[in-house]
């Protein structure tokens, strides 16, 4: 059994977790100001950046930190708040889409300037441009390996209709 607690693989995972936790803690107060949870903001962002401002519920689960049942609960709550709505999928009766509403787009527009300011201050602005590009490339490589569903339904993967 390897008991090397100085193993750089442990350091790599620990640093990623610590950076993510610290960044999310910096963003949390701003989400609260706008009466959103971090996951609700993530849902609005994913929908707002998707073709037609909508994603299949299963694709939304793949792109977020939520399970399929977790997405259902969050979308139910956001639908009651008027931020999203559901649409039936015309090609598959078992599927439905989550669609950002006008109210959801307005809320996202209210949150985004402050969010981008915090992201600049506590994330992307801390690195020179060349190191940021390397980081983004590295994160995409890792994401694509460990979460291949993360781009499901996005403009990168949607075939023209």
From TrEMBL:
<dbReference type="InterPro" id="IPR039422">
    <property type="entry name" value="MarR/SlyA-like"/>
</dbReference>
<dbReference type="InterPro" id="IPR000835">
    <property type="entry name" value="HTH_MarR-typ"/>
</dbReference>
<dbReference type="InterPro" id="IPR036388">
    <property type="entry name" value="WH-like_DNA-bd_sf"/>
</dbReference>
<dbReference type="GO" id="GO:0006950">
    <property type="term" value="P:response to stress"/>
</dbReference>
<protein>
    <recommendedName>
        <fullName>HTH marR-type domain-containing protein</fullName>
    </recommendedName>
</protein>
<dbReference type="GO" id="GO:0003700">
    <property type="term" value="F:DNA-binding transcription factor activity"/>
</dbReference>
<dbReference type="InterPro" id="IPR036390">
    <property type="entry name" value="WH_DNA-bd_sf"/>
</dbReference>
<dbReference type="Pfam" id="PF01047">
    <property type="entry name" value="MarR"/>
</dbReference>
<feature type="domain" description="HTH marR-type">
    <location>
        <begin position="6"/>
        <end position="144"/>
    </location>
</feature>
């Amino acid at each position: 059994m390897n008991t090397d607690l100085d193993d750089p693989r442990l350091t790599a995972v620990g640093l990623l977790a610590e950076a993510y936790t610290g960044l999310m803690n910096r963003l949390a107060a701003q989400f609260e100001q706008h009466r959103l949870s971090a996951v609700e903001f993530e849902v609005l962002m994913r929908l707002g950046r998707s073709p037609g401002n909508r994603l299949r519920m299963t694709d939304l689960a793949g792109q977020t930190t939520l399970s399929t049942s977790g997405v259902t609960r969050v979308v139910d709550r956001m639908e009651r708040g008027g931020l999203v709505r559901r649409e039936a999928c015309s090609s598959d009766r078992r599927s439905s889409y989550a669609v950002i509403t006008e109210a959801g787009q307005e809320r996202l527009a209210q949150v985004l300037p402050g969010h981008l300011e915090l992201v600049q201050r506590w994330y992307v602005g801390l690195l020179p441009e060349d190191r940021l590009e390397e980081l983004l490339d590295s994160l995409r490589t890792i994401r694509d390996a460990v979460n291949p569903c993360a781009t499901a339904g996005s403009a990168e993967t949607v075939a023209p209709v």
